[in-house]
Amino acid sequence: VDAAQNKDKSLAGVYTITASALRLRAGAGTDKKILLEMPRGEKAQCYGYYTNAEGMKWLYIMYKGTVGFASSKYLKKERGI
Question: Is 17 within 8 Å of 42 (Cβ atoms)?
Fold first, then answer.
């Protein structure tokens, strides 16, 4: 899995998958290897790391013990308590 290129503490938190099936990839971009698919409604953790690719942020996230990149377009951050 590629390393994230940037960090923004404000991105850290729990995200909900909004796409019907969001692909977790080994790097930022649709041309990167698919590690697994995350179903809509599932949750993933981001620690604030990301890489810009294809005109958007690709968040470096952890989903059920697997780390990789997913497009921020299909991730909705949970509100803090």
Answer: yes
